[in-house]
Design brief:
With 201 residues, the chain is mainly α. It has a single domain (29-200), classed as Ferritin, CATH 1.20.1260. The chain is 84% helix and 0% strand. It has helices spanning 3-55, 61-84, 93-109, 112-138, 144-147, 149-171, 180-200. The longest helix is centred in the N-terminal third of the chain and has 53 residues, at 3-55. The chain is elongated and about 80 Å long. The protein starts with a helix and ends with a helix.
C-alpha cells in the first residue's frame, strides 16, 4: 500500500470518527433539552391545575384556565417530540406531577397574589432556561442554527408565550403577595433544581 493510499484511509477514518462524535454530542444535547422541557411543561400544567382547584371560581379563574391551555399545548408538543427523537421522559415525572399541583394549590391558598407570584417565579426561570437552550442549539456545530431550526423556532414561540404569562402575573398584583421576594426566590431555586434533575435522570 502506498503512502498516499494510507493517508487517504487515515483521513477518512478520522473524518468518520469526528462525525460520529459530533452526532453523539448532538444526540445528547437533544435528549437533555427534550426531556427537561417535557417535564417542565408537565409541571406548568399541574401548577395551573392546582391553582384552578382553589381559584377556579374566582375572577382569576378564566385567566388561569387560559394560561393552562397554552401550557397543555406546549406539553402535547414535547410529548410528540420525545418519540420522534427517541428520547425517554425523565424518571422524575411522577414526582413533578404531584409537586406541580401542590405548588399551584399551595400558593393559591395563600391568595391570588401569591398564585400570581408563583407564575412570575416559574415563568422567569423558564424564560431564562429556554434562552439558554436556544444558544446551545445554535452553538451545536457550524450548522447548529440550520440543523435545529424547527426546534429552535418551537422553543422561541413557547418562550415568548411564557414571558406573556410572566407579564400577566405582574399585572395581576404578584408583587403584592406577602413575602414576595422570599417566595419568588424560593420557587425559582426549586425550579432550577428540578431542571437540573430532569436533565440528568
Amino acid at each position: 500500500m502506498s503512502v498516499s493510499s494510507l493517508t487517504i484511509i487515515l483521513c477518512r477514518n478520522a473524518s468518520t470518527t469526528t462525525r460520529q462524535a459530533t452526532s453523539q454530542k448532538s444526540r445528547a444535547l437533544l435528549s437533555k433539552i427534550l426531556r427537561v422541557d417535557h417535564a417542565g411543561e408537565l409541571g406548568a400544567v399541574r401548577i395551573y391545575e392546582g391553582q384552578l382547584a382553589i381559584l377556579g371560581r374566582t375572577k382569576e379563574g378564566p385567566l388561569i384556565k387560559e394560561m393552562k391551555g397554552q401550557e397543555e399545548h406546549h406539553f402535547a408538543t414535547f410529548s410528540e417530540l420525545l418519540p420522534k427523537y427517541r428520547v425517554r421522559p425523565t424518571a422524575m415525572t411522577p414526582i413533578w406531577n404531584v409537586a406541580g399541583f401542590v405548588l399551584g394549590a399551595g400558593t393559591a391558598l395563600l391568595g391570588k397574589e401569591s398564585a400570581m407570584a408563583c407564575t412570575v417565579a416559574v415563568e422567569t426561570t423558564i424564560g431564562e432556561h429556554y434562552d439558554n437552550q436556544i444558544r446551545q442549539l445554535i452553538a451545536d456545530g457550524e450548522d447548529g442554527a440550520e440543523k435545529h431550526k424547527e426546534l429552535i423556532e418551537t422553543i422561541k414561540t413557547f418562550r415568548n408565550e411564557e414571558l406573556v404569562h410572566l407579564e400577566t402575573g405582574l399585572e395581576h398584583d404578584a408583587e403584592s403577595a406577602p413575602f414576595y421576594d422570599v417566595l419568588n426566590k424560593t420557587i425559582q431555586l426549586g425550579c432550577k433544581g428540578a431542571i437540573w434533575l430532569s436533565e440528568r435522570v
